[in-house]
Amino acid sequence: MMKSSELSPGSENVSQNNTRDEENQFEVAHNRSLLITDPVQPCRRTRAVVKEWLLKLRCCLGAACGMEWFAYAALGIFTAILSFLMDLSVTKLLRAHQWLYANLEGHTSLQFFCWTLYPACLCAVASSFCHNICPSSTGSGIPEVRTMLAGFELPPYLSLTNMFIKFLGLTCTLAAGSTVFLGKVGPFVHISTMVGAYLGKLCTLIQANKEDAAAGQMLVVAAAVGVSSCFGAPVSGVLFSVEVMSSHFALKHYCPCFFSAACGALTFRLLSVWSGDMETLRALFKTNFSTDFPFCPLEILLFAVLGVFCGAVSCCYLFCHRWILRFTKTNQIFIKILTTEKVLYSSMVAFLLATLTFPKSVGQYMASQLTMRQLLTSLLDNSQWSAPPQNTSLQPLLEWSSPGSPVYLPLAVFLLMKMWMLVLACTLPLPAGYFMPAFIYGAALGRLLGEGVAYVTPGQKWDMRLNPGGYALVGAAAFSGAVTHTLSPALLAVELTGQFSHAVPVLLATLLANGVARARQRPSFYDAISISKALPHLPSLAKACPSLLFTPVGELLRPQSVQLQKAAALQEIQRAVSSSTEAQIPVVDSNESGNLLGFALRSDLLNFLHQKKIESHVKHLDEVCTLFPLPVLLSPAITVQEAFEILTLVGAKTLFVADRGRLVGLITWSELKRIIEELAKEI
Questions:
Q1: pTM to 2 decimals?
Q2: Rounded Cα–Cα distance for residues 604 and 612 (Å)
Q3: Is 91 exposed, middle or buried (0-12, 13-18, 19+ CB in 10 A)?
């Protein structure tokens, strides 16, 4: 006894490892002997050898650092490969469209039909996949992923069919180009989550002694990997997962998220280098801002004004977005079209948007021939378009300006047109992301302000050093952060461009834009979608119905019908076990007083009833089973949101509600989910 108590923790770990190794060796030998002696299966000896080596490999990998870490690495690598293949396919389709349009030069009517029918057909194909095969693959997917991470089950959104259709549909949507003006981030985060769900199930099967918590942790990690695999930005991907996805981010997810995101970002950049797209590992949108004199100290005030301006414009955009969502849910014509004629609606909207962006009409003032990536690259150009220096390239200026028109006209037309065009594109029933369009729109806002400042301050000492591309970078982070109510775009802007010299202005503008956008509890872009789809995501519902923050949980509780006295008879225990399916049964001092003492496990009571060790009357219930104390006790005055947060943080399945020690009821995780789902339907 004395010697065993003096053993160090390290020796205990050694003994556990030895025991595990012995079990693995026994399992290998057992499986090999079964395969060899089974006369039915063909190639018995070969199969036994292969399975033996696989089991040995599993033992070696598990002994090194745990199988889950290899799953995290596999998640990042596989998601990055999917992202690269999607970008490669989209690039080929976009080049085919540009080649066909260029070869029809001199035939305006044929160029018009080429320009309009190509994206219309692609959107029709994407919508047809979703409508006929998997309707749950439409939209961004981030609101649904947030709901699943909150503990609610949405099985159709994690199916293998959904992942396949989402990938194909998103490829077609992105191949439509800047005409439709939709992005990749949201759906790809959803795709990454589906990959993580299957890898989590695989880890659970391989590690039979592990709990199912590995699958839930894999979903949190996959949300961070989705962003890092899109842009090669691991740090902002993890921050995005913390801000958008999780109401409460556990520290145990911190290292797995960074590890998997780093694997995904590294794989994505290496694939870009090996394909010849990049010469070396560098930022995705590399800029050439001056590091000696990045900006004048007085420009900090202009960056702050830009942040406030982006926040105000985001409020207008979010208002239009909420209005169009409400209109599509209440207008009977739209309801009928989006229910039965999704393919026709998608093709008609895409044709309309393509008509407005035709390069030989209004499109010449919107740089419509540029792809989404080229749009952002040109907006981040560090030269002044209003007065470009002689030693700089005029290519971005030629792409945005037309003969005889000032450079401010195309930027103003771009901002005015893309505002309502993006709102209309949000109604398309196909896989689409909305973060990158907001990022580019914010860059155009910042570019317009930067060019305006350069125009109205000629002859100043710092005028020739003024960088409109820096304003575009600040505006991109501020507007996208205000739309999503997050700060991660500030870090994403720095990682995408590699411009740490503008880190302070970017963060300042993003903070101010968030302050304006979040005033008066306005819902974010993803919150509005959650409310429109009646998803049981409590933070979103609280913004739609502020009174929910003050709704006491006691008003929504069902009356507690099953409880046990401290001195309970055999018949009372049998009645409680048969009438209750809860794992924990409350124990009170007496039925008259109702003072809560603790709880007994239903499994313990069933064991004693089965073994017939309970007499006809017992003095104390704790003589026949363990009476567990209450770690957390809720008050009936606590709100629904507070109860949800406590259940999430504590990780308990059941919490008891008592008023001054008297049992009022109990609230379970399933009961709370039912309450939130009913509130979502009412709102």
A1: 0.83
A2: 12
A3: middle
* Spatial CB neighbours of 371, under 8 Å, sequence gap ≥ 6: 94, 177, 178
Nearest to 561 by CA among 473, 679, 665: 665
Distance of alpha carbon 444 from its chain centroid, rounded? 25
- Each residue's pLDDT tens digit, 494-516: 888 888 888 899 999 999 999 99
Query: Helices 44-64 & 67-103, crossing angle to 10 degrees?
Result: 100
Distance of alpha carbon 599 from the chain centroid: 38
- CA 46 from centre of chain: 44
Backbone phi and psi for residue 655, each to the nearest 5 degrees, phi listed first: -130, 140
Question: With contact defined as beta carbons under 8 Å apart, do 666 and 633 qualify?
Answer: no
Residue 622, CA atoms < 13 Å, CB-side half-sphere: 12
Residue type, 333: I
Beta strands in 329-400 (DSSP E): none
Give per-residue pLDDT as tens, 171-194: 999 999 888 999 999 899 999 999
What pLDDT band is residue 8 in, cutting at 50, 70 and 90? very low
- The string of DSSP codes covering 474-494 is HHHHHHHHHHHT-SHHHHHHH
In the chain the domains, ranked by start, together with CATH numbers, are 74-275 (1.10.3080.10), 299-341+364-386+394-544 (1.10.3080.10), 547-682 (3.10.580.10)
Length of the chain: 683
Average pLDDT on 237-242 reads: 85
Q: Are strands 633-634 and 596-601 parallel, antiparallel or unpaired?
A: unpaired
Cβ atoms 97, 118 nearer than 8 A: yes
- Token representation of residue 313: 């414009």
What are phi and psi for residue 117, nearest 5 degrees? -75, -30
- Asked if 488 contacts 240 with a C-beta cutoff of 8 angstroms, the reply is yes
